[in-house]
Amino acid sequence: MKRNDSPITGPTPLTLPSKPAVGAGRSIGAILVDAGRLSLADTERILRAQREGGARFGDAGMALGLLTDDDVRYALSVQFDYPYIARESNLSRELVAAHQPNSRSVEQLRALRSQLMLRWFDTGADRRGLAIVSAGSVEGRSYLAANLSIVFSQLGERTLLIDADMRSPRQHTLFNLGKRAGLSDMLAGRAGPEAVVGIAALQDLSVLPAGTIPPNPQELLGRQEFSRLLQSLGEEFDVIIIDTPPASRYADAHTVAVRAGAALIVARQNRSSVPQMAQLTQGLREFGVTLVGSVLNDA
Predict the structure, then answer these.
(1) From CA 96, how far away is CA 99, in angstroms rounded?
(2) Residue 6 reports pLDDT greater than 50
């Protein structure tokens, strides 16, 4: 018998990574298998159906009942290195930039983001902060600050959202952070950098909530500690968006805008007072704040 020195080998074993790899160029099937969302047997069933019907992998998988729309959204987010929000996420539905990234309102936010990059954030290394201000209440400051922060983070900018509304804060509710230490605690020396919270579902986005409601918000914001804090945070983040209380009721918004260096004014259609808006604009200019634009909220 003729001797054969070559070892007898079977099929090359399939080795899966222990955790999903970062994804450009990987197929939807491989991404879902790696994530534990799809079995190898079901992947083969989908591939057969795909070959027979000429459909895309995701469409074929959903037609067979083996994939959900959420599975496909997850795989696409990995392929395109884009933040993914599961439908059962505990983030507020007001965060449309996370939950409805393809909606018309989010496209408008992206257009605003482009304008802000050109007019402020790309114009100097020290231009990191932007205050979101309005004259009255219920005009959409917190909504705009939160969603604008999300679209900046989706661009890959290291983004920090600061809730400087220490009167009626909302960002901790929108991002489901609960009651925790925040800006007021840092300014009072009762908390450190750990008060800044990374949002796991939205890479490149962190939030500094308002923290404990203090008896003296204006005094806290007027201290040099706030300026030093913004300068320090500017070394860690590319973009800092700051939510504020209504300027017609409190002086806090002017103080924050001066510290940040720039402001974006928000008004609500059929609600905002034109005289109050004019007074706010004039006051900010007198303080030397750069007004990068205004947004009319028609919702």
Answers:
(1) 5
(2) no
